[in-house]
Design goal:
The chain starts with about 25 loop residues before the first helix and ends with a strand. The radius of gyration is 37 Å and the shape is extended. It has helices spanning about 25-30, 35-45, 85-90, 100-120, 135-140, 155-165, 165-175, 185-190, 220-235, 345-355, 470-485, 505-510, and strands at about 55-65, 70, 80, 250, 255-260, 265-275, 285-295, 305-310, 315, 365, 375-385, 390, 410, 420-425, 425-430, 435, 440-450, 455-465, 470, 515-520, 530-535, 545-550, 550-555, 560, 585, 595-605, 610-620, 635-640. The chain has about 650 residues and is of the alpha+beta class. The strands form seven sheets. Strands 16, 17, 18, 19, 21, 22, 25, 26 and 27 form a nine-stranded antiparallel beta sheet that branches. Strands 2, 3, 4, 5, 6 and 7 form a six-stranded antiparallel beta sheet that branches. It is built from twelve helices and 28 strands.
Length: about 650
């Protein structure tokens, strides 16, 4: 008889609900019919082994903040910081290329302000409305350029030809000529100083003329109108009062500036934005260049504040996060379980982990901080439901490792071999949340041409003279066609009588022979391609940067001359007659193999109390790779002519 092993019988019991109704209202209500049974189950699951942790019911926070006091521009010019306009406006604003519509608007505004001041003047001064309109039309007029062959320099003729190549702007200019005051000419005449308008006032016993036509008794009226007009022009486009108020760094094709914070204890902190080109300023655009440096300026006590507030903390949550209580239903529009994140999506993984595991451990305490402040939490005291108080220390303690967890901290500039550090305070810059941006008024693409060993600045969009832009290739073709229409007087060589040639002689047969090949010194490219050649930096035989060069324009009716750019950015250092006053350089590292695209646009936003702010600025973006101009020299080609 054999022994047969039998496995023991195992039975499992599970306590589960048995719904007897189709609806789920009673089951979801989670009614407790037997409190003792519920306590027993909590004991079985080990819930009573937890710590006594109460909920936070009160928090007391002390925050120290100090506001930005000064702005320093790259050229060393410094000014007191003002919140009248956003920080982006103060940094980005540039004087734009004024179009014809805006120039006519400025001129009409000056006549309006002049009549307003005259109507408010005493009657004995004898001012009549529109008294000086005709004189101002002659003094500050719109003139249609006319090409005068031979009587002007090549630069002046080409400058006029560029204007005439903009056909729509030229037609509009003919409409304005003799009918409107040129506000741009008036602005260049005053140069921001309203007292220069006095040069139009007549002296005693002087007869009116083109340059002087205002009666001396109307001098005060003219000065007040000029002062109000200058203020109107500056506020319309937020033009800097001083030309030195510019943060644009031409060699680096980006903005750079410093913001200084007076600490109030004789120290000063410098915040540096060394490479700003994205079009939106935020805390990550700044680094701390100097901490606790000495300051000799008088401190304004209103810039530094310390506040202590008491409030009830709330749970930190965001839309779609699971609810902390299990009997609450979440919004089904967001499925965190279906969230796909790769190994490199660190931010997505952190958000998901926070929502699923640590959402109950984070509380938020609202605290209003004035914009333009550098704030630091001095301490937080939290009281729970048991009446116990806890002091919350920062995650990063002084003297600990620098790479401990922190958020929104500013890096402190250190030497190459020094230990990294950061400022534990948080910066809230006075910037706007959103802006409206126009279509590019000027657009330039910088590309590397390895075959020609050059960098090309392609003017893909240039100002059309009417407040918009036009294709750079189209304007280059229009200018070329306009120059070809000009007729040149016959030269003396063309009038010479050539000797008759006997085609039957050996000499005549040789002269009529057509060669199969021809030599070409160099070909031409579109005139909106401006070359930049590599040159050594001053005092160095290794480091190079790119210098603006020019392609020659060779025509039969005028001397050979340089092709100049048409956009404001590339024309820096070139006067209206195409004479170069100083060269233009671009750092080599600013034009990578991917290229660079620069745009100039008008931007518009709303500031405090709904104030509308408009300015003209530039932005830099990554290009689309290298290119080739097709420029070639010393070629042997087939003779098809």
């Amino acid at each position: 008889m054999s022994n047969i092993y039998c496995a023991p019988f195992r039975a499992f019991n599970r306590i589960e609900g048995r719904p007897r109704e189709e609806e789920l209202e009673d089951a979801l209500a989670a009614r407790i019919h037997d409190p003792l049974w519920m306590l027993a189950r909590q004991y079985q699951f080990g819930e009573f082994k937890g710590e006594d942790a109460g909920s936070a019911i009160l928090a007391k926070v002390a925050v120290n903040s100090v506001r930005i006091s000064n702005l320093e521009f790259p050229n060393g010019f410094s000014q007191v910081y003002s919140e009248n306009i956003p920080l982006e406006t103060q940094v980005e604003r540039l004087f734009p290329q004024v179009d014809l519509k805006k120039a006519a608007k400025w001129g009409r505004k000056f006549l309006q302000l002049l009549d307003e001041q005259g109507s408010n003047a005493p009657q004995e001064e004898g001012y009549t409305l529109g008294q000086y309109k005709n004189d101002l039309l002659v003094k500050f007029s719109f003139e249609v350029p006319e090409l005068d062959k031979g009587n002007e320099s090549v630069g002046e003729e080409i400058s006029k030809a560029r204007q005439l190549s903009l056909q729509q702007a030229t037609a509009f200019l003919r409409t304005l000529a003799g009918r409107a005051v040129n506000g741009l000419e008036l602005w260049l005449f005053l140069e921001g100083d309203f007292t220069k308008i006095n040069s139009l006032v007549l002296e005693e016993n002087q007869s009116p003329e083109t340059d002087r036509f205002v009666l001396w008794k109307h001098q005060a009226i003219l000065e007040m109108a000029a002062s109000n007009w200058i203020q109107f022009v500056r506020e319309e486009l937020n033009i800097p009062v001083d030309p030195a108020e510019t943060c644009w760094h031409q060699e680096r094709l980006e903005y750079s500036f410093k913001a200084k914070v007076e600490e109030g204890n004789g120290g000063q902190t410098e915040l540096t934005a060394a490479a700003y080109f994205q079009g939106h300023l935020d805390w990550y655009s700044f680094d701390v260049s100097k901490e606790s440096s000495s300051s000799e300026t008088e401190f304004d006590e209103s810039l530094k504040t310390r506040r202590v507030i008491s409030l009830i903390p709330t749970e930190a949550a965001f839309a779609g996060m699971p609810n902390s209580r299990w009997w609450e239903m979440e919004d089904g529009a967001i499925d965190l379980g279906n969230l796909k994140a790769s190994d490199t999506d660190i931010a997505k993984i952190l958000v998901t982990q926070y929502a699923m595991q640590y959402s109950n451990d984070w509380l938020s305490i609202p605290y209003d901080i004035p914009s333009g402040s550098l704030a630091e939490v001095e301490g937080i005291v939290v009281r729970d439901t048991f009446g116990q108080n806890y002091f919350i220390a920062p995650a990063h303690q002084a003297g600990n490792d620098w790479n401990d967890w922190n958020m929104y901290s500013l890096s402190v500039e250190k030497g190459e071999f020094e230990k990294p550090d950061f400022d534990k305070r948080i910066l809230l810059p006075p910037v706007v949340a959103r802006t409206m941006e126009s279509e590019p008024i000027e657009e330039i693409k910088l590309i590397r041409d390895e075959m020609a060993n050059l960098v090309w600045a392609i003017e893909s969009q240039i100002p059309d003279g009417l407040g918009g832009s036009i294709d750079g290739y189209e304007t280059a073709r229009n200018l070329q066609e306009l120059l070809e229409k000009l007729q040149k007087e016959p030269s003396a060589l063309s009038m010479l009588a050539l000797p008759e040639l006997n085609l039957n002689s050996p000499e005549g047969k040789a002269s009529t022979y057509k060669a199969m090949l021809k030599y070409q010194l160099g070909n031409t490219i579109s005139e909106n391609w401006i070359p930049f050649i590599p040159v050594h930096q001053k005092g160095s035989n290794r480091e190079i940067h790119f210098q603006r060069a020019s392609m020659p324009r060779i025509t039969e009716f005028m001397p050979t001359h340089a092709v100049r750019p048409r956009t404001q950015l590339l024309r820096e250092g070139i006067n209206p007659n195409d004479e170069q006053l100083h060269p233009l350089f671009i750092d080599e590292e600013e034009v990578p193999r991917s290229g660079v695209k620069l745009t100039g646009t008008y931007q518009r936003t709303r500031w405090y109390h709904g104030k509308i702010v408009t300015w003209y600025g530039r932005r830099k973006r990554t290009g689309r790779g290298e290119g080739s101009s097709g420029l070639n020299f010393d070629q042997v080609l087939e003779n098809n002519t």
